[in-house]
Design a protein that fits this description.
- The chain is mostly helical.
- The protein has eight helices and two strands, in the order ββαααααααα.
- Strands 1-2 form a two-stranded antiparallel ribbon.
- The longest helix is centred in the last third of the chain and has 24 residues.
Length: 155
């Protein structure tokens, strides 16, 4: 699962790998703290995790994405991350939709490819989709050709 993280500096979104590897510059807020590993930056303390899970179950898409990041990058538990990513997408998070489609495009079979395409269409149709997200949608949609070919080869 590749999740997208919001970073404090400018509230811009970027792929998790970029967010995790970004270096703090003097122009960034000084409230960012150093962590001992990339995973530590995304791991929520137990009380915050429980609160985020509760809010996600109640319909908070941003909380569901935060829980997905906790399990993906913080705990390296992709199956649990997938479940929360799917919840974020279901609640309307465009990054969640794109990330879920990307995950599904890597899965074997025709059904995951079809679901990936459906999530990308939903992301495209969202009134909240940004130009950056439109680019990511195109990139993931481009990978669906490989997905469909792998599915055909598996038959």
């Amino acid at each position: 699962v590749t999740c997208v993280a919001k970073v404090p500096a400018g509230e811009a979104t970027q792929p998790l790998a970029q967010a995790a590897s970004s270096q703090q510059t003097p122009a960034e807020p000084d409230h960012m703290t150093a962590v001992s590993s990339t995973g530590d930056a995304f791991t929520l303390p137990p009380a915050e995790l429980e609160d985020a899970m509760r809010r996600a179950r109640a319909g908070d898409a941003a909380a569901a994405m935060r829980v997905a990041l906790h399990f993906d990058a913080g705990q390296n538990q992709q199956q649990r991350a997938y479940e929360w990513l799917e919840l974020a997408a279901t609640h309307g998070d465009v990054n969640g939709m794109i990330d879920l489609a990307s995950y599904l495009s890597d899965e074997p079979g025709v059904a995951p490819c079809k679901r990936a395409g459906e999530w990308l269409t939903r992301a495209e149709q969202s009134p909240n989709t940004t130009p950056e997200q439109t680019i990511r949608i195109g990139e993931v949609r481009g990978s669906l050709g490989d997905c469909a070919q792998r599915a055909a080869d598996a038959r």
